[in-house]
Amino acid sequence: MAKGTGGKNYRSAGSGQFITKSQADRNPKTTLGEQRGGGSTHGAHRSAISGKFVGPAAAARWPGKTIKDS
Hints:
17% helix, 3-stranded antiparallel β-sheet, 2 helices, 29% strand, alpha+beta
């Protein structure tokens, strides 16, 4: 698992896998930065572009640009 600097982990919205900060910087619209130790969101969906929570219908429309938090 790749870990970025500054207390964040970076995750690809397309694959859901953790990536490095340099990969995240190259793909900002499909990457989420997550605070380490941020706590559970109980399976909510989040937009990789805005970082805001979205509903299941929006997540289904844009599967490569949303991620399901745990």
